[in-house]
Amino acid sequence: MATFKLHSDTATVLENGSKTGNVLLNDSLANQVTQIKAGSGSFMPVPIEGVTIQGIYGFLTIMSDGSYSYTASTDAAERLKAGSTASDTFTYAAVGGGSGTSTLKFTVTGVNDAPVLTSTSASLNTITEDQTTNSGHSVSSFLSSTDIDSSALRGIAITDLASGNGQWQYSTDSRATWSNIGAVNDGSALLLRSSDYIRFVPNGANGTTANFTYHAWDQTSGSAGAKVDASTTGGQAAFSTGSAIASITVTNVNDAPVAQPSSASGIEDGPPITGQVKATDVDSTTLTYALVANSAVGGSVTVDAATGDYSFTPAANFNGAASFKFTASDGSLTSTAATVTIAIASVNDGPPVANTDNAGTYADTPVLIDVLANDTDIDGDALSISALGTAGHGSVQIQNGKVLYTPAAGYTGDDAFTYTVSDGAGGTDQGNVNVTVAPIQSDAPIAVSVTFSQGANGYSDAIDTMLRQNRASIPFADASFFRSILESGKESQPLLKFGNVFGSGSGQIPIGATILSASLTLEVTDGSASGGSINRMLVGWSSTSTWNSLGSGVQINGIEATSTGINVGSISKGSHAFDVTESLAAWNAAASTSAGQNAANFGWVFKPTNIDSWDFNSAQGAVKPVLSVTYTQAGVSLASLPNVSIGAVATAHENDGKITFSLSLSQASTHDVTVNLGTSDFTAKSGADYGATSSSITFSPGELTKTFDVNLLNDGSAERLEFFNVQINSATNAQIDKAIAVGKITDDDVIVPPMPAINASVVAVHNISDATKYDGGPGYGISDPSGIAYIPSMGKLLIADSEHDESPFYSNINLFSLQLDGSYAGNYSLTSFSSEPTGLAYNPNNGYLYIPDDDQQEVFWVSPSNPSVKLGSFDTGYLGLLDTEDIKVDPVTGHIHMLDGVLKQMIELTDRGVFVNSVSLPSVMKDAEALAYDPTHDVYFVASGASSKIWAIDPQANILGTIDVLSSYSPTTKIKGMELAPSSDPNDGNALSLYVADYGADQQNDGRLFEIHLGNDWLFNW
């Protein structure tokens, strides 16, 4: 028998969709719906004509007969995301064969609703034409849109571009990389999320306006960075019906002119060469031109400032590659210098000059005479012997470009002959040769002295390294500087050995010799009150040995090294000789063969005794160690021997023709004293700057002085002061005292005027730590400035900050761009390769900015226009440097000059980090932090972080002047960066200013920038 029973009903419906049905169809003995309610609400009656009631997600209309219609159209339904579901439940009451209640439940599925743009335009921040690496704008910063769907994502679809003088780019990886947007349209729109970035990249030369058109995108289809069809909009599409336009304005910036290199030709001693220098400028057609001071090589030049017309007059007798440099200016900015190269063809200026030669020999002993060694030719032509006269008491013949004189049998006395020298171009001259033929000496040499120095006289067997406890596995075979120090965890022990000193060859110590004396001469670059000891090594090592490989360094225990050694004691900066006779005697006595003696020679360890360190040049350094040994095979005493020395000479000009060195004996000898000596390269190179020469000079009994000439060459290249060495390689019957003299050559092609008087005054002080003016990260400006470089093509200063990545700043920004008046121009991040930049230098020869990093002991180079990208680097640790600080570049040589504050050295390197030279800084400086360079006067400005003073020094570190104008400022200045650049006052013409960065207290926001006027005679002209 049937009974009254109600059953629940369910149905599904899409958002904005409808559903119909009848709740009574599945009920038993029910014939009328009497009441209805939504959710937990109250019942309401259902009349015959029906009633409409609102649920959560839709509206239900129900009739008393149970029929219904449901539409899912409330706001809650509209907010449903596509594919998400929700339930809307109603309860109804029915009667018939009884009464009761049941439910009607709708499952509503959401569909997508297109986003809606609420603004049809957006203005992006104005940029300048030079901001080609700007950080762009996040999409969220300009997108104004709504989306009724719950938790809808936001983005844009770019459908049109107007790029003006540049291009649009986008980034989907937080600006790590950028891509060009390229062509877009409705059918191929670029999709970007609200977190993505877009930027406009100007062409770097012109201002413009640009824009792009976009629709809002809800990310329900497509992916960021892809291009999709966005022609269907509104409704359930992913794209808004409306579109918007975002626009940007790019303002013009004055661009520096670009000077163009060119070439010309002329003839030696001919008329002036004329032409016109060239430059381009995207902003201006009106340019002025200026000659770079001291840039003319091989002559003199004038340049018309208005037209660029030049007239180059070759120097007398000059031929080869002449040149000069010029710059172009638009009135505000100056170009990087360009070079005009002029090929000067040679003509024969005249015959060679044959100078008188003097030679000596013994009876029945031929002698080979280099008669051409002191002959000259104004053109620098290669000379040869074209004819010989006859000798009165002997015979002569040409042998390998020299003359072999053979005295007649048994003859002693004076003789002479003539020779003819030819320049190969028709010029000849006749020279005289005087020969003294002495009787044969019956006694062999009573003593011999020999000298060993790396690179001189063909010697290359010196090896050295440094064992460093805090670099325990790193060898220092290429270090230019050694330090001996006993410091907890940082002990440093240099090792040095002169190998292969025993043997039967020329310049070696033979078997059977008795060592009379031996001295080791070192160039000490920083002294000590207690320098430790020099102990003879007893175990083997090599240039690749390390602290670890030798078992935690060397122990002076009688096993690894002798327990007693040479006491260094208190030692000052300069050249010092140490008596190592005991060491040479021990090695000499160790074996009966030269091989055994050499095998016993393990060199020395420089053992420190306390924290008071001392430093000296290595065999790779500027002034190399020298070992001088005197030995005898005739049983003579040392006291009976004279000392032979080579004297210092004055600086010579390259056109002087020669440098004459003097040799002297400390006392007259009763035997012939024969001295063998020769030249070796340092910064001056044989064949280019001087003629390589070796000679044997004999002091006859009673003679005390002799001379030795080295010919100078003019290579036509612009160069700074250069050096070469002359070394006494060996001496018979004398002890070598001062073995080496330095020849100094100045370049006549580079005119260096005297330094003007310094009349310093502070003309501006800028608080560059002010975060409201200088953007160094939230709440900070330029806090710890550590280096300054002026970029002429930009007309701006770049300032590094060495501590900006540390507490309390924690910022990636560590390079700033400033106008000369101190106003802020922009910032950059170097942290992808350098977190502690300690200096800056601009190299006009290659256009690179050089950045040293003390923590990494490395120097990087970048483009000044995009300094965040490393282009290359070189290591400084291999040189033995301890504290890489500020650097500057000499535009004449292109070489880098770098400070080491701990070693108190200024080191000269090539632009790829190859060691060239070094000088010790004045002892008045406690360290060295900041460097500026004036190439016109060849003057360096050096500052110590421990003082407010600035010292002007010459290339050999002699103090020329002192600037003391910052001592009165509070707090006390700590100078870490300097640069010479044009004055910030546009009315000062080409006046020069010294810009000084005050580091202040470490890791505090207190940086300052001073501008110092040096005086009216200091001009910026490079």
Question: What's the gist of this structure?
Answer:
The chain is mostly beta strands and 1022 residues long.
**β-strand number:** 78
CATH architecture of the largest domain: 6 Propeller
Which secondary-structure class do the elements indicate? mainly beta
- Seen as an oligomer or otherwise, the chain set is single chain
Q: How large is the radius of gyration? A: 44 Å
How would you sum up this structure, described in words?
The protein has seven domains: 9-109, Immunoglobulin-like; 116-251, no CATH class; 258-345, Cadherins (Immunoglobulin-like, Sandwich), CATH 2.60.40; 349-440, Sandwich (Immunoglobulin-like), CATH 2.60.40.10; 448-632, no CATH class; 663-751, Immunoglobulin-like; 761-944 and 999-1013, 6 Propeller (Neuraminidase). Helices cover 2% and strands 44% of the residues. The chain has three helices and 78 strands. The strands form 18 sheets. Strands 39, 41, 43, 46, 48, 49, 51, 53, 54, 56 and 58 form an eleven-stranded mixed beta sheet that branches. Strands 11, 12, 15, 18, 20, 21 and 22 form a seven-stranded mixed beta sheet that branches. Strands 1-9-8-3-4 form a five-stranded mixed beta sheet, with no helix packed on it. A hairpin with a 4-residue loop joins strand 62 (815-819) and strand 63 (824-828).
